[in-house]
Amino acid sequence: MAENGFEPRIAALLCRWCAYAGADLAGTSRLSYPPNMIPIRVPCSGRVEPSWVIEALNAGADAVLIGGCHPGDCHYVSGNYKARRRVALLRRVLGELGVDPARVRLEWVSASEGAKFARVMRDYVEEIRALGPHEGGLGSSTAPEAVAESVVEAVEQVVQHG
Amino acid sequence: MAQPRIGVFVCHCGRNIAGTVDVEHVTERAAEIPGVVLATHYDYMCSDPGQDLVARSIKEHRLNGVVVAACSPGMHEDTFREAARSAGLNPYLVEMANIREQCSWVHQGPAATDKASRILATVVEKVKGNLPLEPSTMDHANKCLVIGGGVAGIQAALDVANAGFEVLLVERSPSIGGRMAQLSETFPTLDCSQCILTPKMVEVDRHPNIRILANSELEEVTGFLGNWRVRIRKRATYVDPEKCNLCGDCVGACPVRVPSAFDEGLSERAAIHIPFPQAIPSSYTLDKETCLGLTPLRCSECRDACEAGAIDYDMQDEFLEEDIGAIIVATGYELLPKERMAEYGYGEIPDVIDGLEFERMVSASGPTQGELRRPSDGRVPKEIVFIQCSGSRDPELYKPYCSKICCMYTAKHALLYRHTVPDGKAYVFYIDVRAGGKDYEEFVQRAMEEDRILYLRGKVAKVFQQGDKVMVWGVDTLTDRRVEVAADLVVLAQAMVPSAGVAELARKLRVSVDEHAFLKEAHPKLRPLEALAAGVFLAGAAQGPKDIPESVAQGSGAAVKAVMLLSAPELIHSPEVAEVDELLCSACGICSPQCPYEAITVEDTAEVNEMLCEGCGTCVAACPSGAMSLRNLADSQVLAMLRAALEEREEAEVSGG
Fold it and tell me: The CATH number of the domain where A43 resides is what?
């Protein structure tokens, strides 16, 4: 735990076939990990919209984890590749806006990787503890609303071509 | 949803949840969420009284949404959706909040309670946005496609056909029969392989429900579960099977001689040939690749010799299109190519052969009619060395996996050798002898004891030619002594690998292969016969190394899976798929290429084929105008879920793990 007692809040968007099932296996195997993450089940990491990540950061998340199937294993053939491209671009945009790209992480966790899921959670919580809280929404240093909107737009542009 | 009236049911799961999570507190917090009209908790929600509680509450409180906070949705979502249906509530208005696997089993203390109530709150928000849905239904085709005519495919085809469904059996080579047709005797009974296989081949040939397409390959697959459209290329054989009377005059006339694939290169065949006498379909094939030219200007010997007039150089490849309801893939295996085993001299030293070559050598139908003669000079080998795990269990250089059948066939080979050459000496180098199977261990013991085959535990270091001998240097690790054998013949138990082209076939079928290109099953233990793509089933060594009884069993198993699908009155498809708001759609077409299932067509607006859509939602994430949405997982729902998950709370926030 960080010295200041900061406990990050992390939203996790987990694909139902791999990462969510991996989280279930961590539970069945009683592999404990910090409780800072609230899971939300999605059909595929390809369903995740970059704007959700921004909204989550604006709604009080210190970080967002996206969990998908390993490359080549996507239940829907290629959704995870799309997620990978979208997240790569999203991280660049966040960096441009002064938000540490580490606040978004994409992880491949298979349904049989309960131990990996627990490890990823431990690592990520530790990393965000060290990074400190995400404060003031996106682009708070300038005109927050306008910047947030332009970020959403920029991200959507890249998504459509990703 | 109209005014939400949501019921929340928190499960103790005995101590599984209630031992860690303060369920009363979670229930109280849930009751405060706007739209929740009932929040209660109970020992075991999945028990009959628990389900009754849910059903009764739906009626009493006129609930239009239910959240059960309990285990993972994978466990009991269906249970509670059925309970709701019985009480008159649409099942798609029921969701589970996973506070066991993803909370009580992995966290402790107040933080676990806080997380449970946050998870619950997200699911309440989701249910608020859920719509009542009805599954879509559709008709399906009734025909089964079996790809691969080895013993697994043969068994699958026969079982599906005997259940009353039409089968299309597609085989790449000129005959069905597969590897089993090449084998001499089979372990552990020493049945003659062809003698037990050919009756099944004949049964396939005569079966009114089976159509064999030999010399054929799958070109293209479109459509989806239950309603595939397949395009098959039937290569021209240049021989009309209706006219061919199998006299064989064409073979005598043909000036070409090339190595016979069926005899593993140990004999020669003409360009026009039949792979083996019992081949089915029983007809000759003119191999275009080795024929002098398919034109009478170059050579017309076979056509001139054919009194039946069966040979037609102008024959063209045919393309067939068929509607298919279920697909069974049984494409089998081959052996790791010999060129890659330099350390054993394989491919260089003529008297180093592989297991399949040995099978042909000792087969009564083989090039020497079962008389064992070595390739270099035709002499009967007096000392023979069998090397197991050649390319298997060798993660550094070759394949890390065990090829499973080699221990048994090597014992069989050594035993057959001793029966054929009673004064010969047989040595087997092995790592372990793996003889798991009915009567298998007894068979190996018989080979060791009765037939006096010398088993040496150790790997062979080097194989090289010296004079007319093949020198084998190895170590017997049980006696810790170097062993040197001046052998006349060396047989390598080569690793099994999937048939060439299986990865390409898998791509066409949209099924996965593993790192070694074996077809991947939907679940290694519980769904070993199914590919992850619905409606595609797996049989035989295409899925992993297997012997004959296992391949046959899997063929029958895959057939039952296919019959279950073909005999269903109609197929049911989840309604939780993408849909287009036509008022918002500008027909930009960005969504369509995102879809791996080709479920979206774009004309005036985008349109989703509900039967093709699998509900992944990647098109939704890409839609720039918000016209595309995923039923019961709309953006607005996810955003509400995120807000509920991240809500500021005064009381105990997460603290420590």
Answer: 3.40.50
